[in-house]
Amino acid sequence: MQMNVGQVIELAREWVEIYGSKIPGFCGAHLMGGLNFSPKDSPFPSYRDVDLNILLRDGDGWDVHDLSYKGLILEYGSVNIEAYKSAEIVLSDPRLASNLAVNSILSDPMGILASLHKTVALEYPHRKWVLARCDSAKSAAKDSLNELSQSSSPIYGFSNLGLLIFDLSGLIAIAGLKPPTNRRSLVLAKEVLETWGQTDLHEEILKVYGSAPFSKPEVEAYLPICAIAFDKAVEVKQTAVPYGYKLHSHVKPYFIDGAKEMIDEGHHREA
Q1: Rounded to 5 degrees, what are φ and ψ at 174?
Q2: Does any domain span residue 50?
Q3: Element holding 75 (H helix, E strand)
Q4: Which of 134, 176, 181, 222 has the greatest CB tally within 10 Å of its CB?
Q5: Is residue 75 domain-shared with residue 9, that is, in the same domain?
Q6: What residues have CB less than 8 Å from 155, skipping those under 6 apart?
Q7: Residues 95, 121: Cα–Cα separation, whole Å
Q8: Residues 141-192: pLDDT tens digits?
Q9: Which pTM value belongs to this model?
Q10: What would you report as the CA-atom Rg of the chain, rounded to the nearest whole angstrom?
Q11: How far is it, in rounded angstroms, from Cα 247 to Cα 232?
């Protein structure tokens, strides 16, 4: 039976209580991503993932993990508590600000998240912080552009181009006061640009990425090939690769069924 968003949130809270809170240095946990902005009674397709952050006293940057929990594709980031040191730091962070502007708290034994949420919710839309988040997103895009210029092969070049497109799509979302997203980043960028009367810019993005001329049947034909490639990658993976934490069988629906959802909506070029 399909769960709704409220039930999924409670399962995420359960996982944090049973497992996440046992991670050494645990200081709290909160939801990230689309769950924070979906009605509690809306259905939650099983191919979507559940994102959350675990705050750690001695965390090493931002370490990401994927796992399966009671039918959920659960992805959590182990984040050093320094990223939550002040409301000003959070308000300037394009990854965190939108998620702490809403009540996303799953566990808060030290009261850190409740205090941050109170301030971030009030100041999130202020121009000062929107510009700060845009500056951060621009910096990330510049880093990706630099990586692209130094790519050692066409494969790494295309991967770095994807990161650049993702960073720029995130910048568009942030400027439009929308929470950035991953899989649907180009769809969200299109929606924001349409409200600004800049649909031509979205077409330019697709041209740079290379997907502008693709027809829906062409993209649909690629999907089963991608599914086979994913299965093979899971089978042969032995060394660390970018985003290797997603190369698990239980994550496959996130990519394949998630892409089909976008294709069915008419966003085949974004998929």
Answers
A1: -60, -45
A2: yes
A3: strand 72-80
A4: 181
A5: yes
A6: none
A7: 15
A8: 999 999 989 988 888 888 889 889 999 999 999 999 999 998 899 999 999 9
A9: 0.91
A10: 19
A11: 10
